[in-house]
Amino acid sequence: MTEINKSRLFIASCIALVTTSMTFAIRAGMLSDLGKQFNLTNAELGWVASMAFLGFPVATMLGGWLCDVVGMGRLLVLAFITHMLGIVLTISATGFWTLFISTFFIGFANGTVEAACNPMVAAMYPDRKTEMLNRFHVWFPGGIVIGGLISYFMTDAQLDWKAQVSVLLIPAFIYGVLFLKQQFPKTERVTSGVSTGDMIAACFSPLYLFMVACMLLTSTTELGTNQWINTILENVGVKSILILVWINAIMAIGRLFAGKMVHTLEPTGMLLGSAVLAVVGLIWLSNTSGMMTFAAAGVFAMGCCYFWPTMIGFVAENIPKSGALGMSLLGGAGMFATSIFQPILGSMYDSNLVAAKANVATNATEASIKLAAGANTLQSVVILPVILVFAFFGLKMYMNNQANAARLQK
Fold it and tell me: What topology is assigned to 8-409 in CATH?
């Protein structure tokens, strides 16, 4: 039997995640252009964007069940095929419905990557799960930086959104080649002999359900906001796509050094601190403009930085019997919430535009109206991380009590 090449599998997983996040960044950069070319409202653009986030949980829910049965390799073949299909269909889109369908395929591919790669990383590095999952997830914001810069420079060179989407074929092809003919590890649930019944029971435990509820809010705070940053902040006085790049560059650096944070604060401390910074960052973003927007965005980025991988790492370490299904359902729940939030955020922005037109001076410019509408929209989102501050404080107290009780028993 061929030996498992951990290094190659980890690198291929990172490139697959780069492909996933580049779709996110390039789509964020072209939403306004799609609206103009196909005469779509912000609410309709929200529905298109939501398909990427709906396709994701559909894939993770299926992939979580299938990972133990068909193996990670077959799931990644499916990811490659649906990535290619979604990219080609997006390039050939003719309107709302073709964009709607093609974006779903891309979302499905993105979710399949997560369904296969998260349990693979956990299985390859059983003693460093949270640290290595954070390192793996460096490449979600890392890919957004790459995709955002590509979108910025290609737009500056007057290359249209179809040319930008075509670039996605490159990383998709690379990860397909790297995974080809590789030996994949079995999931931890399979190797440890945990039964399907025990896995399902773990996914219905109170702690797991609490983490799912929190994931609905963390993912919406991070991904829901970031998907609209380019549109909502397009009139703050700096290139909004560069704000998206800046946010994700900080997130990538933070996740790269997550190991030190895990040992210093532990996952619950990381999550609580992240929620506090997300609140501060969103409030500041909604009340600033010009170059100070980058400072506010930096605080928001430090807040969102550890949410996704630390949530998955926490479940992998503290509810290990939930297995690949637990990690996949957690990610799927987050993306499903983000999917629902996309048209809501689009409609909210449309409503705030109407309100801003009514409330500002009659000679106000379109830019000032959009600036006010964007600020009001961000202020409405702040409630999500505020709830998380209280939730993660409670989680930290609970886990501390559990640890103290365990020490007393010894």
Answer: Growth Hormone; Chain: A; (1.20.1250)
